[in-house]
Amino acid sequence: MSNATITVLPGDGVGPEVTAQALAVLGAVEEKYRHTFTVHERRVGLDAIEAEGTAISDDTFETCAHSDALLFGAVGSLPAGQTRSGGPRPEQALFRLRKEFGFFANLRPVRPFESLYAASSLKPEHLKGTDMLFVRELSAGLYYGRLESVPGKPSEIRRTARGTEAVDTLLYTEEEIERVVRAAFEIAAGRERKVTSVDKANVLSSSVLWREVVERVAADHPTVTFEHMLVDACAMRLIRTPADFDVIVTENLFGDILTDEASMLTGSIGMLPSASLGARRTESGMFGLYEPVHGSAPDLAGQDRANPVGAILSAALLLRHSLGLEQEAAAVEEAVEYVIREGCRTEDIGEGVHAVVGTREMGRRIVDRL
Amino acid sequence: MSNATITVLPGDGVGPEVTAQALAVLGAVEEKYRHTFTVHERRVGLDAIEAEGTAISDDTFETCAHSDALLFGAVGSLPAGQTRSGGPRPEQALFRLRKEFGFFANLRPVRPFESLYAASSLKPEHLKGTDMLFVRELSAGLYYGRLESVPGKPSEIRRTARGTEAVDTLLYTEEEIERVVRAAFEIAAGRERKVTSVDKANVLSSSVLWREVVERVAADHPTVTFEHMLVDACAMRLIRTPADFDVIVTENLFGDILTDEASMLTGSIGMLPSASLGARRTESGMFGLYEPVHGSAPDLAGQDRANPVGAILSAALLLRHSLGLEQEAAAVEEAVEYVIREGCRTEDIGEGVHAVVGTREMGRRIVDRL
Ligand SMILES: CC(C)[C@H](C(=O)O)[C@@H](O)C(=O)O
Ligand SMILES: CC(C)[C@H](C(=O)O)[C@@H](O)C(=O)O
């Protein structure tokens, strides 16, 4: 029996709908396994900007800080015209959470279900045997050029007499690289013992340093094989020979692009969960933020059409990594796989299926199976 | 009848083998259509570093400058350990050519042949109707953080008492964005009249400026529809719904990653040609550099195994864009498509084919068809 505090941040667009299903699953786990989960729900993103004037309030931040885990939905994007207005932007909630809680490792498992091969644009023979885990660096790189408080990392648009120019800075310290690469090797040691490190070392200085660090860390893990791969080559191999990968570790923006690409192997980005972890521990695991890989999808919002599986599998990762409840996590994953194998489909994975179900029905079936 | 001077830079690895076939095709065109092509062959890349101590000599550069077009093979990578040695790097040849000749627009057409659907890892129903053209910005961005001569654009590894860090700078001026975006809209006006501009405006300042410029240029092209797409979303859509794209314009590194990914639609990166163009004109077209998208593939070198189609289709682009020989370009493209439809396959596209042919045989058949 476990007691845990979870802060829920549903956010914008389809965020609240998919998060509701993930919460229902956590409720079912709580009951079945007799745990007590204390849940605090708070606003983030556009929702928070409208209600509280900021993408995430200090108050919400405090609540998060006193939890064992954070369950996150999605945050919206401002319309194009507004990105340069200088006001608060919804993504800042995510950036602040990632940065201030030190979530440097973003885990994104990609394991296509055989029963969903029909939903993927790839041929089944290319999907067979695919089971990879991305470890995306989440706390540095081009994403944090905007933090003016960090000297030497500008991100700005300069309007001068000579004309307008814009600059972003890709900066990595050795330590920022090392901690995420170490995490990747440790995880690989418990899997197929293979690490692919992705960079652009033929162009970027930060990638040259990245390679140096990887080689040093690799020397400490003689039982794990590793390879360097250029990001452009990796973008090919993910589609061509996805089964060759085990653990893929890469910097922030490369990880963003490659994981979205790889999501297509599973049939839909709606299937993918993620866990963001740092150095802070909870009583029985790591403090972490759990969110589906998909975004807020405003065009689907409020229509009971989004796929809740990414959010539900994120809840499974929460049980595993933050609460140390491996059996419960596995039970949720089994329930998801069962329901999908039985033919239950939301529209995003509904290729060739007669009747697709809505967000709530998909969630209900998974809860029932539990 | 046309007189033209072409400088050929075969480079490393499979570069010389595929370039030889492209040259054979140009020779056949010369004869059949009674043109006179004066060809100068020069060293670049590792080949030049070994023979001349630099990735591209000033002398070679001069020869290039006095040509109508450059036919480029591929340049190798130094082994990982050597990237940080500080000595000349083979890629510098490419960077210097791109930068000093002002080749800011890199055109990469992706049009999978129906007869090669079997070679692609994508399902045929997803490939159907795909015909897209990437316009990759080639003269700025993270690639040129290394040029120490440009102030405010550092790319370096700093080893200080506080520790080691590495920095790369992503800088775009409005002018650098505008010229390539304008090129994309102009090209789109002669195609399906649709531009997809790819950026990461929810994170990067340079992307926010990119969007501003695109909107301004779009206003000058009311008959062309356009959309903004985030790079992560684009990495998905390229596999999911590739037929939806017409012209895709994006910054340097995004273009590098996305075009390699998109090459998988055609079955192999060995199929893809490219043209790099700037502002300089020739007598009947644009001065340009033409190269297959694939790299030097050292593991295949010297074995008559590489696919020469990317190089041959690059020669077709050379005929079209630099020499103004549209009919000849179309004839080369038709010959390639014919030979492939007839079942001729190098090993990279040989999925399910009994006997594959070598580099030379593939070239010979295309020449024969001409
Ligand atoms: C919303 C956006 C800023 C975010 C990112 O780029 O990190 C998203 O794409 C992700 O992958 O979590
Ligand atoms: C060789 C390498 C530097 C080059 C690049 O990244 O531009 C290549 O990948 C390309 O796409 O032309």
The CATH architecture classification of the largest domain in chain A is: 3-Layer(aba) Sandwich
Helix coverage percent of chain A: 25-40%
Oligomer state of the chains in this structure: homodimer
Principal-axis shape of chain A: globular
Question: Could you name the CATH class of the largest domain in chain A?
Answer: Alpha Beta
Q: Strand order, main sheet of chain A: write it out.
A: 2-1-3-12-11-4-5-10-8-9
Q: How many beta strands in the DSSP annotation of chain A?
A: 12
- Assign the structural class of chain A, choosing from mainly alpha, mainly beta, alpha/beta, alpha+beta, or little secondary structure: alpha/beta
Topology order of chain A in helix (H) and strand (E) letters:
EHEHHEHEHEEEHEHEHEHEEHHH
On the 0 to 100 scale, the average pLDDT of chain A is 93
- The number of distinct structural domains of chain A comes to 2
**Distance between the terminal alpha carbons of chain A, to the nearest Å?**
17 Å
CATH topology of the largest domain in chain A: Isopropylmalate Dehydrogenase
